[in-house]
Model the fold of this input.
Amino acid sequence: MSWRKDQGRAERGYHHGNLKEALLQAALDLISKKGPAGFTFADAARMAGVSPAAPYRHFRDRDELIASIAQRGFEQFESLLTQAWDDGRPDTVTAFERVGKAYLAFAREEPAFYSAMFESGLPPDANPTLMAASERAFAIIRAAAERLAALAPPGMPRPPAMMMALHIWSMSHGVASLFGRGDAARRKLPMSPEELLEAEVLIYLRGLGFATDRRPGTGTADEKPAGERSGPWGKAK
Amino acid sequence: MSWRKDQGRAERGYHHGNLKEALLQAALDLISKKGPAGFTFADAARMAGVSPAAPYRHFRDRDELIASIAQRGFEQFESLLTQAWDDGRPDTVTAFERVGKAYLAFAREEPAFYSAMFESGLPPDANPTLMAASERAFAIIRAAAERLAALAPPGMPRPPAMMMALHIWSMSHGVASLFGRGDAARRKLPMSPEELLEAEVLIYLRGLGFATDRRPGTGTADEKPAGERSGPWGKAK
DNA sequence: AGCTCATGTGAACGGCTTTTACATGAGCCG
DNA sequence: CGGCTCATGTAAAAGCCGTTCACATGAGCT
Done:
């Protein structure tokens, strides 16, 4: 990691040279430490070593900075989900679960992005480009659901892919926002959020008629020791 | 609705007489209008007709006011869920779904409470009595899950009730916080949040092996026209 | 060299939170 | 009823923030 002009502090002429980027970085730091509410425009400026008025050359106001972060967040999120989905390899169900885990991993490892994206209280409709980014990310989940729906067992009516996608999203978001971030501020659990979500998704998929032991499908098969794994939960009493 | 001293405005001696209550009311109004972030201590004071310093006689600081609201929210929430659960009448599955709907109804009809409870960014561990209230509310869901788990079909291993409860909670919270509040600020959906959640829960329960057509059980039976209702979703394409 | 315009500064306004010293009067005690 | 006391409210002030505006600087172009 290295900015053009060394952290922005030290010697630095009248012009910063990289202020916009420095502000975004600072804001990310601050949000991850104190939440999107505690984040302060002035603090970010201070951290970048400029006067409190300087940021206004790059962002209309505080909200626009947060929206910019949310925007980037959705882009990284989309890329992460795309990678996790990996076009359904090695088999659809496995890939699908990987997407769920990626969702949680993002919420855990990038709490600042996640907060900006989902907990900043910005009206989504006010910002078309932001909403577009959000929809591109959701489209990954939706595409995965589409593929999964196509595999639905013949006996049953096909579940609408859009609905499945919304279900998965709500489960992921629910788990992430109730139990997701480790640091502070979350409830205690008898299991990890990842396990919780995995079980939830597996049960849900089973409810749709999918075989969830991962034997069928494209079977690239590194079967887990299929021992007594008869249900999607561990040995919890 | 009528306070003791008429709105707090009008004629009113040096002492308000009911300030604490008036502040809580004002805060509820403000939060529901502008979100927990936009809410201002000074505004609440103004609305109650007192000086900006007066609230400090009743709340240590702004956060404590919000925590008080969250506290009340959890109490109302608990009461609502208890009522919806109605001790599992007329049958467990029906009552269970009613709890899900009550959850959403609360989020929709009491957005201020809901925000204070789940989106205020307060550390839950910092406030023991608040966490206790939250746990009492969750206990209702947990108790319902317990009863449901006991009914699990004999063929399969019993799902842990705690896990089921957490699953249901995460689904409800996910749907509520992504799509829950109608006014502003939410995404568009091909179906109502209520339908979305109902389908999600039904599919999930089916995944656990429950018959979800509501024919078995205590069968107090006001069967819906069981026509072509072969899956938990409507005619969505 | 000189011009121009994007970018940063300083000072100022109004608003918010919180603290402190002081005012008021409700409730009690004699 | 008179007076005391203490919870409750006020005024003023300090310190922070967001935001704006007139002004300074200097990077890049001609």
User: Anything to note?
Assistant: Residues 33 and 231 of chain A are 39 Å apart (CA to CA). The mean pLDDT of chain A is 85. Chain A touches chain B through 53 residues (CB under 8 Å). Chain A has two domains: 16-59, 65-207.
